[in-house]
Amino acid sequence: MDLRPLQRQRRALNRTGLVIAGLLAILLVASLVAHELTSGETGPEEEGGISQPVEGAVPVFVQRIIDGDTLEVRAAGTDITVRLYGVDTPERDEACYQEATDRLEALAGSRVQLLPDARLTDRFGRELRYVYASDGTLIDEALVAEGYGYAWTDDGSMREQIMAAEAEARAAGRGCLWRG
């Protein structure tokens, strides 16, 4: 009996199996790379990385600053408008508007962390979140403490802390809101 045809068939199957295994390995590596690129997670050593993660907060990329208490972020490939939960800053054409907007831009940088609270959206459909800088600074509180915004007093787990920051800023005459 001639075994050559069987040996050729076995070699062909082995080659096919190796090709399939190689393709699966390439697909696995490609999916891991794609996940890494789209997950938005970078290490602190990378430019714009999160150096102080906040428990429960989601890191996102800042797309643009809309005004002193609203920004657009990118998460999971989607642009989302976020309203800072704990602060209310002056509106366009009001005193301190530009200063508050510029300060939010400086505090936010290219990455922020979003932490949800009791309400997830406002009446305009914007996402409500406490916003933390990459270094862990609560931006809502920083804007109020520096005199660029008013504490949101209706609700929120950080309400008391941010209201205390406003009282201190007001007493010290900080920022453009409380200068005498």
Brief summary of the model shown:
The protein is of the alpha+beta class. The protein is built from five helices and seven strands; from the N terminus they run H-E-E-E-E-H-E-E-H-E-H-H.
Please, could you describe this protein's structure?
Helices cover 40% and strands 22% of the residues. The chain folds into 2 domains: 1-38; 58-178, Beta Barrel (OB fold (Dihydrolipoamide Acetyltransferase, E2P)), CATH 2.40.50.90. It has helices at 4-38, 97-108, 139-145, 159-172, 175-178; strands at residues 58-67, 70-75, 78-84, 87-88, 111-115, 127-133, 150-151. The protein is α+β, with helices and mostly antiparallel strands and 180 residues long. The model is unreliable at 21-25 and 40-47 (pLDDT under 50).
